[in-house]
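Worked problem 6 (solution included).
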Amino acid sequence: MQDNFHSSADRLRSSLNLPTSMLPFSDFSSASIAAVAYLRNLTSYELCAVTRLESDRSVFLSVNESEYKIKPGDTLSWENMMCSKVLSGEFPKYLSDASNCLSDEDLLAVGLNMQVGAHIGVPLVLPDRTVFGTICAMNPDPMPELSPFQISAIELIARMLSTILSLEFQSLDQRRSYERAKMESESDELTGLLNRRGWDRALYEEEALCAQYGFAASVMVIDLDNLKAVNDTHGHKAGDDLIRNAADIIEQTCRSDDVVARTGSDEFAVLTKGISQEGLRAFARRIRIALMVSGVSASVGTSTRTPSKSLTDAWTEADKAMYVSKRSKG
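Solution. The predicted structure is:
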């Protein structure tokens, strides 16, 4: 009897001709796009968006077409964003007339080259109370005060997006734990680092995450300058010792969540996340100095992913920069 019930229920569910609008969102990205469209219809603000706070920049993940000419993947200085003033408590979340808070010169400093007359900024908050980003809206002219219904709807959207994001991050953590176990089968026998196959997979998967969530990521290429001379003079065992020593130094200098690989006989690569250009240069300098102190000469090149440059492109660019550095040594 129970089996017949479940069978009938399954047939009923499969026969329902549900519209796409009633189906679950596939991920945070699709939910964000729908939230932006709903916010636009709800408020009539010119620009509506979901953003991510990344270091000192605000990354636009989902955004409607508007006079502001902002596109998904664009970034603005977080310091100049009005959302930063909302989170710091300087501005309210709902500002129907921004001229009451800022001068015309200050408003243009937002970085949009257009007036901001009204603003909405509601944070997206993770369970540990860190701020992921915002759901926000801007309009060139002041707007009518939002009704209690509109405000409660916006805050419900923000909370639901935060929930979807939190669940997706939990799944992401589980997936990364699985991938770490998988990496063990993709390790280089001599150094214990990732081999080329493992590196290619790490780049591919991080590229997908960067595109979806607006994460920042950079690549560093490190090539040992004197391996051939060591092999020729002292033999391959000494060369292997040099490679192992260099691998240990690089790994110890990197952070725990950096990805380090041996991609060639005397070449290493590092994938690092959430680091500024200045921080990346300092990071490369630390690795060069750490190797030098241990008597290992190396050439280093770096490159950072952008919306128009994939991590694979960044790796190629970092490799070219490394060879420029090597040639400059004569």
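Discussion: The chain is about 45% helix and 20% strand.
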